[in-house]
């Protein structure tokens, strides 16, 4: 198995079981025994064993070889030998004590970039190639609409304009004009009665004055 594919498979296997602080280093300049070394933490004996089993199974499923598996009895430090790669699965206290990163960590490998590259290569191999540029261009061109589909829209617009033209205009309402109303017969009679009473009182006023003078003279 290619080393890049192997490291991608190992990282996926460790992430499936929630491995913590996964790191990987290129060791080709330090030893000829293996090309990569991976270090990961497990919070308990059960998790370290599960991480080792996940790496073993994933590598075998993808056609890789598992040379050996050590440390499963205690679960504090489990080592998985994959030939070109050694995976160290350690509990946090053991990892902090031995500090393998200081021994092998001169050339760290970026795990995200390696996984993306491996995935991209697989997609390119699976994707079918276009038969010709002419066919590819013809597929991208938008489909032309037939002329018959456009005529009903024009007729509909003309019919709408004709209907709008035939609508009668709203009647105008005059604002601000005062309408005079003729007085009723009862009101006219009351006015006449008041005028007659005023006339009578005006005519009787001189007679009243004469009577007053006669009374004063008699006294």
Automatic annotation (TrEMBL):
The name this protein carries in UniProt is Ribosomal silencing factor RsfS
Spell out the Gene3D superfamilies in the cross-references.
Answer: Beta Polymerase, domain 2
Q: How does it assemble?
A: Interacts with ribosomal protein uL14 (rplN).
Q: Which Pfam families match?
A: RsfS (PF02410)
Q: Where is the composition biased (Low complexity)?
A: 155-174
Keyword Metal-binding applies:
no
Q: Which regions are flagged for Basic and acidic residues bias?
A: 137-152
For this chain, the family text in UniProt reads: Belongs to the Iojap/RsfS family.
Quote the subcellular location field of this record: Cytoplasm
């Amino acid at each position: 198995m290619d080393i890049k594919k192997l490291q991608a498979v190992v990282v996926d296997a460790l992430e499936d079981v929630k491995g913590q602080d996964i790191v990987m280093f290129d060791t080709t300049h330090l030893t000829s025994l293996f090309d990569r070394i991976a270090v990961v933490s497990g919070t308990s004996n059960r998790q370290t064993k599960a991480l080792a089993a996940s790496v073993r199974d994933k590598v075998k499923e993808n056609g890789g070889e598992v040379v050996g598996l050590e440390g499963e009895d205690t679960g504090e430090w489990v080592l998985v030998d994959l030939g070109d790669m050694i995976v160290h699965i350690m509990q946090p206290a053991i990892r902090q004590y031995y500090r393998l990163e200081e021994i092998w960590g001169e050339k760290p490998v970026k795990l995200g970039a390696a996984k993306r590259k491996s995935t991209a290569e697989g997609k390119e191999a699976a994707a079918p190639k276009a038969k010709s540029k002419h066919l590819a261009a013809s597929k991208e061109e938008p489909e032309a609409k037939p002329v018959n589909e456009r005529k009903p829209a024009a007729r509909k617009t003309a019919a709408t304009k004709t209907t709008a033209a035939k609508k009668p205009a709203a009647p105008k309402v005059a604002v601000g004009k005062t309408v005079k109303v003729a007085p009723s017969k009862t009101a006219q009679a009351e006015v006449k009665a008041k005028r007659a009473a005023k006339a009578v009182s005006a005519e009787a006023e001189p007679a009243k004055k004469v009577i007053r003078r006669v009374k004063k003279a008699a006294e």
